[in-house]
Known about the structure:
WD40/YVTN_repeat-like_dom_sf; alpha+beta; about 15% helix; 5 helices; Methylamine Dehydrogenase, Chain H
Amino acid sequence: MQAYKSSPVDVANGVAAKVSHNTNSLEPSIQNTVEGTHNLFQGRSAPFSLTEVDSKSAALKIAVKYRDEYLSSRSIPRSIDRIGAKEGSDGSNNNVTSGSSLALTEPLAPKLITLGNQHGNKMAIGLKPTNVDEEVQKVLDGLSGKQTKSKTKKPKKPTRELILAESEKGASIANGLPPPPGQQIVRKRNYEPVKPEWHAPWRLMRVISGHIGWVRSLAVEPGNKWFASGSVDRTIKIWDLASGTLKLTLTGHISPVRGLAVSSRHPYLFSCGEDKQVKCWDLETNKVVRQYHGHLSGVYTLALHPVLDILVTGGRDSVARVWDIRTKQQVHVLAGHKSTVSSVQCQEADPQVITGSMDSTVRLWDLAAGKSMATLTHHKKSVRALALHPLEFGFVSASSDNIKQWRCPKGDFVQNFEGHNSIVNTLSVNSDGVLFSGGDNGSMRFWDWKSGYCFQEADTIVQPGSLDSEAGIFCSMFDRTGFRLITGEADKTIKIWKEDEEASEETHPVDFRPSLSRRRH
């Protein structure tokens, strides 16, 4: 029997068949190994296909690059914002459930593009793996400037001076992310000046002569029938307010009388002077009934508490002293100023005591504790005058640099009254909102309280025979009605001013020219 000899062709076919058989037998092992490795790092089992590795890698690369490089400065484009809804509506990705994939239904989420569950041979990453180029192009189109409008509500009352305002194409800000380029920093609101009220101009009504020295202090009694004046001639004179005639002269001080106050609760007149004395005069007997000792130098100012039987005085010893009227005892020593206390005011509510000093500060005091509540350091020069508004809860302070308006109880700055370029010695406010300021050179300014508009500028009229250097205003006060203004001046006279009854808005129009800017200090 002849042996069969295989040809080279047959040998080649057999080797090929054997190799094919071996390859087919290794493919399940490779598939199992790849799936095991994938499950080890993925954290859950799912089918895996070697044929889609390239497409998923490309989509994942785009997703990671988008998240790392563009997420911090861009919101989700509109094209990607609706991917989840599109996939749910067209049914092209039924294997991806709404609970397993991140469809990016919100404008900004903590993680924008992440891997989802695996179902079948597709992998949900927020982009369709079968058409990666198309979705990537949509991402690039969205990054070119097509942004969604903000869905966050703006606060109705911003509390900061500068807020982040969204533009028409601005995007909402995610937690912890910087604002998108479409947003810009703008001011909360533009400054809108208050329109001033019309006030009639004031003119000179009467000149009262009688003192032989500068008139340094004034006080109107609560019944509005008479007023008192203190002078450098060391006397206190009582004048009839209606006629301007002299009714009484009180002597007792041995130095200029710098402060006067008439009590609304008792028939007492209080006076202080540069002789370090504080006196209480009984108006029924016209004699001194009490004296308050304690000041180490001249006493420049005093004020009565409107409710309590308390007297507050201030002077060159840089302190304000609180006295009990009846017992003559010193209740508090309000220490803190570094120079002369030139002005004191008292009111019912805290701060019950306000002091102005030559150290260019204004202090608000807690009367119960005897300590300072706040110190206002806005002025640059000596504060020589203070005035309380009779109706509103606020006050003004005067210095040679500016007249400043404040709001109680914390002493919040309101506005400046600019334009009185002089050493302002006195301030007065009436219930109609007219603020008067008198300067050391005889200049007079009348202001509207709310707007800070100066509606009248004038100079005092000196007494015939006086020097030009004697044109100075040292003290002023409105009467109880607010229709009369009394000034004490350096020409040794007392002048009474009243509103011009013939003036109207046509004859004296308001020439209000507000500035675009507003000083905040």
